[in-house]
Amino acid sequence: MFTRYLPGTRRAFSSLTEQEILALAISSEEDDGRIYRAYADGLRSDYPASASVFDAMADEENQHRAKLIERHKERFGPNIPLLRREHVRGYYERKPDWLVRPLSLEKTRAMAQTMEHQAEQFYLAAAKRTSDADTRKLLGDLALAEASHQNHAKQLSDELTPPTVQEEESSKEHKQFLLTYVQPGLAGLMDGSISTLAPIFAAAFATGRTWDTFLIGLSASVGAGISMGFTEAAHDDGVLTGRGSPIKRGLSSGIMTTLGGLGHALPYLIPNFKIATTIAIIIVVIELWLITWIQNRYLDTPWGRAMFQVVLGGSLVFAAGILIGHA
């Protein structure tokens, strides 16, 4: 029978009996089936073909659970001990699907593969810790079943999501990533990096005081970040345009805007004006290069055109800041 344990403690895996190991396998199969069903539900609206793969895997887990329960009835009777993975010390854990949202195709498939591999390792480890022939055979059969699950999952994926469908879903996922994170983040980085050049360097050359310049740069960066974030989140809810969650877009835009301005404001924490200004200018060059790289890498903008746009805009704003600062 199941041995009672004190609240807040966990049983050592090595202390489990054969019946308890079987009970743990049953509860684990139940949890995995629910997780696969949740993965399918999370992917269904955007990736229906991949969702069907996880539906099929959830069905498989339910079939395995039924076989385990039948095996338990044959060997130990109908009363299954209440033993779950959180009751066992050192046992692998599963994250609820809401902790790993948003679900991406590659991440979800990788998690499923890890789940099956962990289950196989559990049965292999359990088999090594028993000398009873029947128990060893039982656990060995379960390990083989989990290994076959991995192969079957790949077969299901190949059947239900052929290369053309996988390419289509991957392309859709990449496009969604660009619309939700890259474009708002890039717009924020450009605004934060370029629009704050004038006030920061105007303040620097007008006052010659690094602390005052830093405060102006900090206020300009944070203010611009808040403004850009709210603007991005409020002007489009993403329902019609398909650009994704307004909160995610607002955060991407706001955070990158703030970072873009802080990059060349932080050097003015250095008391020496010349050193601070030199470092700030170097950081501006790095920021402009980063903007150019993102445009080329994610938006397929040719290097020449991206460099011309960014360098021209940045140079004009930088020159305006210096001229105003010397006025």
Write the layout of secondary structure elements.
Elements: E1 11-12, H1 18-43, H2 48-76, E2 88-89, H3 105-128, H4 133-160, H5 163-195, H6 197-207, H7 210-235, H8 246-263, H9 273-299, H10 303-326
Parallel strand pairs: 1-2
Helix content percent band = over 70%
Please state how the strands of the largest beta sheet are arranged side by side. 1-2
Total number of strands? 2
Please summarize the sheet with the most strands.
2 strands, parallel
Your description of this structure?
The longest helix is centred in the middle third of the chain and has 33 residues, at 163-195. Residues 1-7 have low confidence and may be disordered. Helix 3 runs antiparallel to helix 4, helix 5 (163-195) packs parallel to helix 10 and helix 7 (210-235) runs antiparallel to helix 8 (246-263). The protein folds into two domains: 11-161, Ferritin, core subunit, four-helix bundle (Ferritin, Up-down Bundle), CATH 1.20.1260.10; 167-326, no CATH class. It has ten helices and two strands; from the N terminus they run βααβαααααααα. 75% of the residues lie in helices and 1% in strands. By secondary structure, the chain is mainly alpha-helical.
Q: Which short descriptors sum up this protein?
A:
327 residues, mainly alpha, Ferritin, two-stranded parallel ribbon, 1% strand, disordered N terminus
